[in-house]
Specification:
The complex is a heterodimer. Chain A is an alpha+beta fold. Chain A has helices at residues 13-22, 70-81, 108-112; strands at residues 2-8, 29-35, 42-46, 49-53, 56-65, 89-95. Chain B has helices spanning 7-34, 40-67, 97-115, 125-147, 152-155, 164-182, 198-217, 225-253, 258-275, 281-301, 313-331, 334-337, 348-379, 386-391, 393-398; one strand at 409-412. Chain B is globular. In chain B, 65% of the residues lie in helices and 1% in strands. The longest helix of chain B is centred in the last third of the chain and has 32 residues, at 348-379. The chains are: A alpha+beta, B mainly alpha. Chain A binds chain B through residues 9, 11-12, 14, 34, 36, 38, 41-46, 48-55, 83, 85, and chain B through 187, 191, 387, 390-392, 395, 399-401, 404-412, 414, 416, 419, 423-426.
Chain lengths: 117, 426
């Protein structure tokens, strides 16, 4: 089991969701975050105050998957999020020690496998 | 001061002008709530820009072309740059010419702002400002002359109390042309593009309704019966539209929606705009109940098409203005307006006068706007790049955000070359 963390541009979040759906990856959470990854700063001016924005809005996806799903998930996030310009984001894959489905108490692989309704 | 000036009339018209100016800001708030957060400032700024641009073009040439002379199609340049516009009343009026000019100017401004609803979230701000300046003269001033300034529509008997021709049909059908020329947003039809702040929408619509009492109530140019009738009808018609909208929303989705309620207020105000001083309060209520139906149908149908007329200016202003103009031809009563009866009260001729306006105005507004935008588009790009559309208009064109947090912002020293580091994440 792995936890795939994808940090992407907010305007590409819908494309990522679409790509994950096509890759049959279910069970996703996302959150709005701010981050900096080396892209050019934007200059903003409010009356006499000029600032360079060092932090950009990003969207962070977290997908817990069984080992066989790691590559399709990473591929889907890449496909959905890429624009080719600096600031497209990063993907981190980290080992996952344990997963529990709260409703049933089922653990690990069963917990990250979608159930049929 | 000329003895013909009535101080009560003047006091009300000064107030009414200020109320209409507030409507442009209210419209900005209404539109800003309807778009995504990243485009909300730009959307608001399109309306604010009309205050500057149309305010200036109106003073320079627009007013003159609309209200100088009796030409059938267009007025003259006798009032170029406010020449001859002073404290004396205009014609038979009871208010200073300057107040009349300012009141009419506030109409031109909000009409320009209305069209922006068709092209928000993708049109380049520079191209918008060029278009707005040209449109205010080449389309608005012409239509205002037709209906208000002694042009051919007024001459052949079309009744238009507060701008069903230049303001409502003028903006609505121009908006359709603008949406077609500029094209749909890149994500239109692919992703859900939802309003980002429904409270802004309701507050904007409410303030528009408030301002509309000046818009319609001032269009009698005084405090006489036409103004009083229009003022009260401006309360009644939107109230009835609201009820219709509630019922239709309930039937369609089993819930009364807030965005629907805001839309109903606008539709009701537009419906009564042309007819305000000409029809009885009873008919004004009927107009609110029934006139909302075609607008609702258009709002449900339009998003199923490929036409990204984003904020439904055609449905809320074009269709409602069209309906209101025709309603005069049906239910106007001499006993209420002292001028003309409609078809239901024995004068079929009035209906045909109204029908002429309902046919000619959309044709001119659509055609002229289409050609004008093609011309502007030949000189400069109308659309933002896909990249800019993704980032959002606020940062791209204004270098500001509606909801800036300041986190991670590095202060640049006023001199510009020395940076004071407040927070540097890299």
């Amino acid at each position: 089991m792995k936890l795939v963390i994808g940090i992407v541009r907010p305007e590409k979040a819908n494309d990522v969701l679409e790509a994950l759906y096509r890759a049959e990856v279910r069970g996703v959470s996302m959150s709005r975050i701010q981050g900096h990854g080396g892209e050019l700063e934007q200059v903003q001016t409010y009356r006499g105050t000029t600032v360079k924005m060092g932090l950009f809005d990003k969207v962070r996806f977290e997908v817990a998957v069984s080992d066989g799903f790691v590559d399709p998930t990473v591929q889907a996030i890449c496909d959905g999020a890429r624009t080719g310009e600096v600031g497209d984001g990063k993907i981190f894959v980290v080992p996952l020690e344990q997963a529990v489905r709260i409703r049933t108490g089922a653990g690990d692989e069963a917990a990250v496998t979608p159930v049929e309704h | 001061m000329s003895p013909a000036i009535d101080t009560g009339d003047t006091a009300w018209m000064l107030t009414a002008t200020a109320l209409v100016i507030l409507m442009t800001v209210a419209l900005g708030l209404f539109y800003a709530g309807l778009v995504r957060a990243k485009n909300s400032l730009n959307t608001f700024m399109m309306c604010i820009s009309a205050l500057g641009i149309a305010g200036v073009t109106w003073a320079l040439v627009g007013y003159s072309l609309a209200f100088d002379g009796e030409g059938a199609i267009i007025g003259g340049l006798g009032h170029f740059a406010l020449q001859g516009v002073g404290f004396e009343p205009r014609g038979e009026g009871t208010i200073p010419h300057l107040v009349f000019f300012a009141f009419q100017g506030s109409f031109c401004i909000i009409t320009v702002a209305l069209i922006s609803g068709a092209v928000v979230e993708r049109m380049r701000f520079g191209a918008w400002m060029v278009f707005a300046a040209l449109w205010s003269v080449l389309v608005y001033a012409v239509l205002a002359h037709w209906a208000f300034g002694g042009g051919w529509l007024a001459e052949q008997g079309t009744l238009d109390f507060a701008g069903g021709v230049p303001v409502e049909m003028g903006s609505g059908f121009s908006a359709l042309a603008a949406a077609l020329v500029v094209g749909a947003r890149k994500d239109y039809g692919r992703q859900a593009l939802l309003p980002h702040n429904t409270v802004y929408i309701l507050l904007g619509a409410g303030l528009l309704w408030f301002g509309w009492f000046g818009f319609n109530g001032g269009s009698g140019f005084g405090t006489g019966n036409p103004s009083v009738l229009a003022f009260t009808n401006t309360l009644l018609t939107p109230a009835c539209s609201l009820i219709t909208w509630f019922v239709l929303d309930l039937i369609r989705g089993r819930k009364v929606t807030a965005v629907g309620a805001a839309t109903a207020i606008i539709v009701g105000c537009v419906l009564i705009t042309p007819a305000g001083g000409f029809i009885s309060p009873g008919w004004a209520m009927a107009l609110g109940f029934l006139g909302a139906l075609p607008c609702y149908a258009m709002i449900v149908w339009r998003p199923r098409t490929r036409v990204d007329e984003t904020l439904d200016v055609l449905a809320a202003h074009g269709v409602a203005g069209f309906t209101g103009i025709l309603a005069i031809g049906l239910v106007a009563q001499i006993s209420w307006n002292g001028i003309a009866d409609g078809l239901f009260y024995g004068d079929a001729g009035q209906f045909w006068s109204q029908a002429a306006a309902a046919a000619a105005t959309p044709a001119y507004a659509f055609g002229a706007t289409f050609l004008l935008l093609k011309l502007v588009g030949a000189l400069m790009p109308l659309r933002s790049t896909e990249h800019d559309e993704a980032v959002g208009m606020d940062i791209v064109y204004h270098g500001e955000e509606a909801y800036a947090s300041g986190e991670g912002a590095i202060l640049v020293a006023p001199e510009g070359d020395e940076e004071v580091l407040v927070a540097n994440p890299s």
